[in-house]
Amino acid sequence: MATRTWAEPYKIKMVELIKMTSREDRLKAVKEAGYNTFLLRSEDVYIDLLTDSGVGAMSDRQWAGLMMGDEAYAGSRNFYHLRDTVEEYYSYRYTVPCHQGRGAENILSQLLISAGDYVPGNMYFTTTRLHQELAGATFVDVIIDEAHDPVSMHPFKGNVDFDKLNALLDEVGADKIPYVCIATCVNMAGGQPISLGNLKQLRAWCDKHNIMLVHDMTRVAENAFFIQQREDGYKDKIIREIVYEICDLTDAATMSSKKDAMVNIGGFLAMNDEKFYEKACGLVVVYEGLHTYGGMAGRDMEALAIGITESVQDDHIRARVGQVQYLGRILREAGVPIVNPIGGHAVFLDARRMLPHIPQEQFPAQALAAALYVESGVRSMERGIVSAGRDSKTGENRKPKLELVRLTIPRRVYTQAHMDVTADAVIEVMKHSSEIKGLRFAYEPEMLRFFQAKFEEVE
Ligand SMILES: Cc1ncc(COP(=O)(O)O)c(C=O)c1O
Asked: Which atom number of ligand 1 is nearest to the Cα of residue 51?
């Protein structure tokens, strides 16, 4: 893809001012935050690449949609608009709004999982696995081996390995597998897509064994883009068609709409089975709100419905992924070790290779994210041993093969110049990487520790 082909299909109408801080200020801020970029104040950040979640820029049409909010407690017209849009673009017949993705994961896990079950998936996601475990299941990673190898150029690292899936089936039996959970554009693997060929095979496998197929569709549009670019038979299909085809192969979905659909808050659980929908309505009212708002304001459901339509436009997704590829390519050409192929929502730095002097037990990716912030004011996040947490049975640290720092690009927010500044900062940090010290826990929360943990330097 030539550099110029991803020019943004929008122009800027309003801006938010950001400011650069001094190195001394940032050093103080990072120490106060316990070397955890989640604990920094946003006003101390220059370019915020912590996440792509809830931080996208809404369009003028979405902002106008906010004014059309019908805030009735029950039966808001925005709910029906959202429900119809989900069916039209994503195929699912029933929609249960939720405040965000993990709200949907909670309801799904409670409804489908019994104690002692196993849930196979194409790599874990932090909140998804935790909800599965809280409901009594064990998560089993069935992604292909290449996904754990940052150097492999496999075009579809999100694919399922059927030998792994069949081995689990042989071991525990279909009765212990309530569903297979498949993520599109797998976040923890570096934003890597699953192919439609693999997904079709998985559909057939699930039908054969009478097992449900659940879709974590948080980044389905980005996955569709990679299918269009890389998979035989899809180059002439538009993103909207590919997105629909992906969803149509699955039975139910959890969605964090804060990503693809470019809203600041929101998500949903969606499905085709009426009985499942009835049960979900029974539970959403306990945890989120009535089934016609599920924790979302009417105006937010309206902005979401509009955001869905914008997220599947070819020119939008080409610019969105194009910007990520642009940053990734500059870093790769400068010799920075990153996860390949470059993902859809983020560039992932390989902290193992950047900081070979820091053992994984001293959290190299956490240390690298903190160092990048001190160097430049660019905020990123750890995706390695800290995010992986402890094994729920043994209490030991899980040691993932991937020890990464994620530079996550918010949608429609930053410019090409911001990407250049970010690349310069990473390259500068790499030059002095041998000076970066390892970390140890000063405070370790029990669940989802990466969000709130505090660290200190190992001298
Ligand atoms: C793949 C994936 N699934 C689920 C979630 C959870 O969504 P939320 O943060 O809206 O609760 C996220 C959020 O980062 C995600 O990336």
From this structure: 14
Measured in Å, residue 456 CA sits from the centre of ligand 1 at 28
Written in H, E and C, the secondary structure of the chain is CCHHHHCCCCCCCCCCCCCCCCHHHHHHHHHHCCCCHHHCCHHHCCEECCCCCCCCCCCHHHHHHHCCCCCCCCCCHHHHHHHHHHHHHHCCCEEEEECCHHHHHHHHHHHHCCCCCEEEECCCCHHHHHHHHHCCCEEEECECHHHHCCCCCCCCCCCECHHHHHHHHHHHCHHHCCEEEEECCECCCCCECCCHHHHHHHHHHHHHHCCEEEEECCCHHHHHHHHHHHCCCCCCCCHHHHHHHHHHCCCEEEEECCCCCCCCCCEEEEECCHHHHHHHHHHHHHHCCCCCCCCCCHHHHHHHHHHHHHHCCHHHHHHHHHHHHHHHHHHHHCCCCECCCCCCCEEEEEHHHHCCCCCHHHCHHHHHHHHHHHHHCEECEEECHHHHCECCCCCCECCCCCCEEEEECCCCCCCHHHHHHHHHHHHHHHHCHHHCCCEEEEECCCCCHHHHCEEEECC
Supply the pTM of this predicted model: 0.96
Instruction: For the chain, give the mean pLDDT.
Output: 97
- CB 256 near ligand 1, within 6 Å: yes
Task: Give pLDDT, residue 201.
Answer: 98
Q: What is the pLDDT of residue 4?
A: 64
- Beta strand 378-379 with 47-48 is parallel
Residues of the chain with pLDDT under 70: 1-4
The partner residues of 382 in beta bridges, in order of sequence, read 405
Q: Is the CB of 125 under 6 A from ligand 1?
A: yes
Tell me the best of 38, 51, 102, 345 to mutate to test the pocket of ligand 1, counting ligand atoms within 8 Å of each CB and taking the most.
102
Distance, CA of 371 to CA of 84 (rounded, Å): 46
Query: Residue whose CA is closest, atom 7 of ligand 1?
Result: 101
Q: Which residue has the tokens 């670019």?
A: 229
Q: What is the pLDDT of residue 2?
A: 45
